[in-house]
Amino acid sequence: MVSGTCFAEFGTDVAIVETNPDRLTALREGRIPIYEPGLDRLVEENVEAGRLTFGDDIAAAVKGADAVFVAVGTPSRRGDGQADTSYVYAAVEQIARVADGYTVIVTKSTVPVGTGREIARIIRKTRPDLDFDVASNPEFLREGNAIQDFMRPDRVIIGTDQYKPEGTERAQNILRKLYRPLYLLETPIVFTGLETAELIKYSANSFLAMKITFINEISDLCEKVGANVNDVARSIGLDGRIGKKFLHPSPGFGGSCFPKDTRALTAIGRNAGSPVRLIETTVAVNEQRMKDMGERVIAFAGGDVSGLTIGVLGLTFKPETDDMREAASIPVLDMLDKGGAKIRAFDPAGMTTARPVLPKSVTYCTDALDAAKGADILVVMTEWNEFRSLAPEKLAAEMKGRKIADLRNIWDPKAIKDAGFDYISLGRPDAVQPHQA
């Protein structure tokens, strides 16, 4: 949605193919089926300008197209964690059947190394007469900031077949034209081979996931030795070799990319006989981290949450999205529910997507103060900005108890404690859990 809409904003005619009838109906009616700030306005403007259309007819969309982007899901396969590329291959076969001239077939989906070669094989088998090239153009869009990330990216990666110089030049020229507005901004456009581009996306996401996991472990260490993780993170982040991003303690990383891509990279390494042990450990530590957060809340309650009312602020894996995929709230709330707690939850955008994956007993509230109403304990799971400005006095007026577990470090410990709360957060000495003091 974001890539197609932003290409249209660049002045390109874009036809988005959606095979889900409900989603297609929503798109044609101007209803965006995902939550992404600013996307609805951008879609409306480009539809009105005639540059952006939605349909389910692949042949009509592909007819006369210079490039066709494959942007279907590649979820983790059960059992081995490898990326499931079946949707990619099915889409490619459909494209090959209806393409009507030279076409660059581009993977936007995050795919394992070697996928581009397999795509070429499938196309040759399906349409031996088709003139085509395969390219890899991985996306690096952060949910909640995706439009800005597309319009002003750190870099654009384009992988083509290095062993086919003539085809590489044709494919590169088409993709250069598509990204021409970014050349004017002097955005680095990095051309690589297919395998390199495929590996870059996994490497980037896995490194960032490893950075999150690193600061989470340092946060635990801070609690043991009386250090402040905020000061540690800020100080090491000022080192230009490290950088300040992704150094915020949390209940663990989630979403559609990091969990899936770290598992896939470990599978790629195992299959290649070159295990990536740092990433294997990152996956294991992150999965344990989420379980530990549930146990931390239970310990904060005195070891038993049975019969307690727990208010929960935030459900999605991060703010500014409705994405619940692999969100830390899922295992934490499941543990609290099994412990007999009554859960009242609020999320500004994610409650609809949360219902199918959270315990059926969860009560969904109208706002943050409603979630806090009658709560013995309040738990912060997602750092939405609107939660940061909540006055402690207003929380106290709604809550039955005086315990707050801030798993995102959004509040100042002194201010919360001065309001009469028993308060814990992550890695800060003035908010260390009582059972660890």
From TrEMBL:
Pfam families: UDPG_MGDP_dh, UDPG_MGDP_dh_C, UDPG_MGDP_dh_N
Binding, NAD(+): 23, 74, 110, 143, 260, 325
Gene Ontology biological process: polysaccharide biosynthetic process; UDP-glucuronate biosynthetic process
NAD recorded as keyword: yes
Cell membrane in keyword set: no
Organism: Komagataeibacter intermedius AF2
EC main group: oxidoreductase
Signal peptide, first to last residue: none
Family that this chain belongs to: Belongs to the UDP-glucose/GDP-mannose dehydrogenase family.
Domain annotation UDP-glucose/GDP-mannose dehydrogenase C-terminal: ranges: 311-413
Enzyme Commission number(s) from the entry: 1.1.1.22
GO molecular function terms noted in the UniProt entry: NAD binding; UDP-glucose 6-dehydrogenase activity
Protein's recorded name: UDP-glucose 6-dehydrogenase
Active site: 257
Known pathway: Nucleotide-sugar biosynthesis; UDP-alpha-D-glucuronate biosynthesis; UDP-alpha-D-glucuronate from UDP-alpha-D-glucose: step 1/1
Keywords (A to Z) from UniProt: NAD, Oxidoreductase
Amino-acid positions noted as binding substrate in the UniProt annotation, renumbered to this chain: 140-143, 201, 246-250, 254, 318
Recorded catalytic activity of this chain's protein: UDP-alpha-D-glucose + 2 NAD(+) + H2O = UDP-alpha-D-glucuronate + 2 NADH + 3 H(+)
